[in-house]
Amino acid sequence: MTLRPLAIALLSLATVPAAFAAEKAASLTEPQVRELLTKQGYTRIDDLEFEDGMWETDATSADGNRIDLRVDATGKVYAEDVVSNLTADDVKAKVTAAGYSKVHDVDYDDGVWKADAERDDGKNIEVRVDAKDGRILTVDND
Which positions ≥6 away from 142 have C-beta within 8 Å? Predict the structure, then answer.
């Protein structure tokens, strides 16, 4: 008996939380996202749109600065000025550990890491990773 089929099955489960998160984020309505951001002190919320599994917008922060924001499925807000606890190499390691290969073009943008990678079926994907804990937020076909 080989362990390869079991390993492939287990690795495929790693994408389920990210896929569920993207679906859940889409279920947040625009008014719900606006209310969430307003409660956190953001004003002038402009160009709010759902893209790549997350809500994206620009808004004015409490200190009066214009800032790019993203909102994930849990309602967590990612601001562009957030300092990451991770390096690009850390992100590559997290994405690889989640079962993806050929991780490249790792970039930190608007408080979220993005990386291109390949699934085990050879399809290209884009992965978004939490800047603080390395949790995979979304996985989208590239």
Answer: 116, 123, 124, 125, 126
